[in-house]
Amino acid sequence: MVYLQKYLEDCGCDPDLVQLIRLISRQMEPIRKAFLDNQFYEHTLNASGEVQAALDKWADAHLIKVIGESGYVREIASEEQEDIIRFENSRREYAMVMDPLDGSSLISTNLAVGTIVGIYESGGVMQKGSNLKAACYTLFGPLTVLVVSVGKGVQSFAWDPKSEHYYLLKKSFDIPEGKIYGSGGVYKDYIPAHEKVLSYFDEKGFKVRYSGSFVADCHQLLVYGGIYTYPALKKSPKGKLRLLFEANPLGYIITQAGGAITDGYQSPLDIQPEKVHQRTPIYIGSAGIIKKIEEIYREQ
Ligand code: AHG
Ligand code: MN
Ligand code: MN
Ligand code: MN
């Protein structure tokens, strides 16, 4: 069995980066256990004006406390925090962007949800996704799986509650050109370019796979290929997903697995963020299909 820490050390990662990723990975069990405490199911509204489950807030506060106390991180930007959080006394310059709980509208359905994290080596959180040093997400499914990239492809690790370690499950992913897609939003709100993309999927016999959790709907593409999209909508031209916490970390990982991400015209990884909670339309998945989607948008 190859454990997470050993694998990252063998990749030649900075020891503090190894410890930071390991620390993040070890918060997944406390978060998973919190699901048992059903006081977390009531909802309020967050910085993006969206429904915020109490568990969103708990996971956010827990990660900020643990990561903040570690001294590895100078800044954290979180989906659940209005502003960037700075740690004046940190001894390293890593900067972390996170979606503490993605798919939280599904918690009461027991469908797969997860935590998304992006890590910059220095320079704060307001930088392009293409500058990420590492990114990871967990998926709370039948297994608690950690998917991580430190720029050397993509690996997955499974949490073993007995040994209390993450062991290597898959040491590389190469996204196939698949035929599944999941599209957020509702049909009446779709712009003409997206309608053209959906007719293309139809013509090619694509099947719909959409649960409402970005991290789960994207994870399956690593195995099956295909596309996840939350497109620009008539009423929200920037779509729903957030550039910093969702598009960039998953875009980095999917790209490392030979896939691609686009907003219809360019990769969100090349966008210089201007606002912490800015949104971006996204299509993410098999590289060949992303190329076709950009052709369709260019023809508009
Ligand atoms: P979050 O739970 O972090 O707010 O993210 C929810 C996102 C994403 O996970 C999911 O794909 C999308 O919202 C679902 O939106 P709809 O419910 O509008 O389909
Ligand atoms: Mn949310
Ligand atoms: Mn999310
Ligand atoms: Mn979230």
Explain what you see.
The protein is of the alpha+beta class. The chain folds into two domains: 4-170, Fructose-1,6-Bisphosphatase, subunit A, domain 1 (Fructose-1,6-Bisphosphatase, Chain A, domain 1), CATH 3.30.540; 180-299, D-Maltodextrin-Binding Protein, domain 2, CATH 3.40.190.80. Helix content is 30%, strand content 24%. The protein has helices at 4-10, 15-25, 28-34, 54-70, 192-203, 214-224, 243-256, 287-298, and strands at 43-45, 51-53, 73-78, 85-86, 94-102, 113-120, 134-140, 144-149, 155-160, 165-170, 180-183, 207-208, 227-230, 260-262, 282-285. Strands 4-3-5-6-7-8-9-10 form an eight-stranded mixed beta sheet, sandwiched between helices. The protein has a five-stranded mixed beta sheet with strand order 12-11-13-15-14, sandwiched between helices. A hairpin with a 4-residue loop joins strand 9 and strand 10. It is globular and about 50 Å long. The model has no long low-confidence stretch (mean pLDDT 95).
In short:
With 300 residues, the chain is an alpha+beta fold. 30% of the residues lie in helices and 24% in strands. Bound molecules: 2,5-anhydro-1,6-di-O-phosphono-D-glucitol and manganese (II) ion (3 copies).
Keyword list:
300 residues; alpha+beta; Fructose-1,6-Bisphosphatase, Chain A, domain 1; 2 domains; eight-stranded mixed β-sheet; five-stranded mixed β-sheet; 15 strands; 30% helix; globular; binds 2,5-anhydro-1,6-di-O-phosphono-D-glucitol; binds manganese (II) ion; FBPase_C_dom; EC 3.1.3.11; cytoplasm; magnesium
